Amino acid sequence: MAKKLMKGCEAIGEAAIQAGCRLFFGYPITPQNEIPEYMAARLPQVGGTFVQAESELAASNMIYGASAAGCRCLTSSSSPGISLMQEAISYMVGSELPAVIVNIMRAGPGLGGILPSQADYRQAVKGGGHGDYRVLVLCPSSVQEAADLVIDAFDLADRYRNPVLVLGDGLIGQMMEPVEFKPRPPVALPPKDWAANGCKGRKPNIINSLYLVPEVCEQVNHRIAARYQVWEEKETRHSGHNLDSKYDLLLVANGSVARVCQTAIDDLKASGVEVGLFRPISLYPFPIKALREAAARAKNVLVVELNMGQMRDDVDSFLQGRVPVHFYGRQGGMMAAPEEVIEQARAILAGRSN
Amino acid sequence: MQNDLICAGFGGQGVLLIGKILAYAGMHEGKEVVWFPSYGPEMRGGTANCSVVISDRAVGSPIIAQPRGLIAMNLPSLDKFEPTVKPGGLIIVNTSLINRSVQRTDVEVLEIPCNAMAMEAGSARAANMVALGAYVGMTAAVQLKEAEELVRETFAQKPKLVDVNLRALHAGHDFAGAHRADQAPTPEVRS
């Protein structure tokens, strides 16, 4: 397939199709409506099924059911809708089921606004629902990366039998960029011999997250947590910009706002000031080791986010006081401008910082 | 080398299409491109706009606070975006619908009656193609033949509209060419 200009949301939909997803359940909410719109048009062409559920609660429980039957399935929503899905996500983790969920975030709290925001970082990386669990969180900063990560998300979900969340915002979802779907070599994945998909000739499989015997429930918790340890060793992803320069200041940013930081860094470089960017792509597991390595070469770290400093708290605890951590954020759907980041960077470099 | 612009007008004037054609043309020429629409809560009869970046290197922020170019298809768009244009940038003003001049003195201005010229080309609805042709003529951000190809693709389902839109595109391009020839500095006379 040649390069095509696609909206982030459309590319996410096509990526799911390419990954073999044939079921979509969702409920409309801006700024991600182009995902269900795309799936509604595209799924019937490939023998799949699109269902507009009566609510996010219903949609998320539909993917719980479809996943239990061993099917690759997708739901997408935006912040308030994702909050409504947390119960089902917790049940899917408890039942050890794969699923891919896309959150094209809006500003919050409450109904908030539809413009770009990263206000759900904490909800995404700390679990989100009840119970002691995590989901693997992938955060793209371009349309191509969004497509690539969605395809990876299906494989990761199946490999680890755990939901994977792809986290973007209105900028990622609404902008159009060239995207290409290259043929990928098939990935070897464990068979879904646990699926409740008809038990003729075999012992029934039971999908369940109720463990009333505490010893058993504790074992299940350990089994699930063991996966997260494997993720931390094997599944961290990160990228960067200008990291091979001699920088005194390291920016840490993810997703849409990382692009703004990249522009700021290029402009600073043009005036002879070297600043690096560390961009986590997996927000959980966070690439802690790589962050520490990049930060060890800096005198200061500036975290830039579209929220009140949710990732800053994590970066602070990961760096354990080795480097001073500063923060600059915009909220409510306001996008930080490169000029604002440059001003913050210059202030820190000049020793008059926040 | 980067070209970026904001393209703004009433919903229905086809401003998003101007941006998409520019983005596609840039992509076909092997450049890095981003197209970003205003998707906020807009009023009917209000303004729609998109920003487009066409660049030789990876595009950072797709939100352009200070665009190098502005296509203003109606008055509210000129009012809103005139102050944001980068000094030395370009403002294309659709004088068919805008009855005031640009106040800025530090930008280049092309005043062009897009709707009137589109009518002459065969359809008032092709005003956006006049503006697109004018922008290409002023900036050479993409090649005219790429834009032509995309007009053919865009209206492939309605062949009757292809010629009208191509005529409008060329009218805008020629208008810009004539303007540039007028503005070109007189060659220095050597004695």
Q: Summarize this, please?
A:
Chain A is an alpha/beta fold and 354 residues long. Helix content of chain A is 41%, strand content 19%.
Spatial extent as radius of gyration of chain B:
16 Å
What proportion of the residues of chain A form beta strands (DSSP E)?
Answer: 15-25%
**CATH top level assignment of chain B:** Alpha Beta
Question: What's the architecture of chain B, going by CATH?
Answer: 3-Layer(aba) Sandwich
> What is the CATH third-level topology name of the largest domain in chain A?
Rossmann fold
* CATH level-two architecture of the largest domain in chain A: 3-Layer(aba) Sandwich
Beta strand % of chain B: 15-25%
- N/C terminus separation of chain B: 38 Å
The N- and C-terminal alpha carbons of chain A lie at a distance of 49 Å
In sequence order, what are the helices and strands of chain B, one letter per element? EHEEEHEEHHHH
Residue runs with pLDDT of under 50 for 5 or more positions of chain B:
none
Major sheet description of chain B: 6 strands, mixed
What is the overall shape of chain B? globular
CATH fold assignment of chain B: Pyruvate-ferredoxin Oxidoreductase, domain 3
| Domains of chain B, number | 1
Question: In oligomeric terms, what are we looking at?
Answer: heterodimer
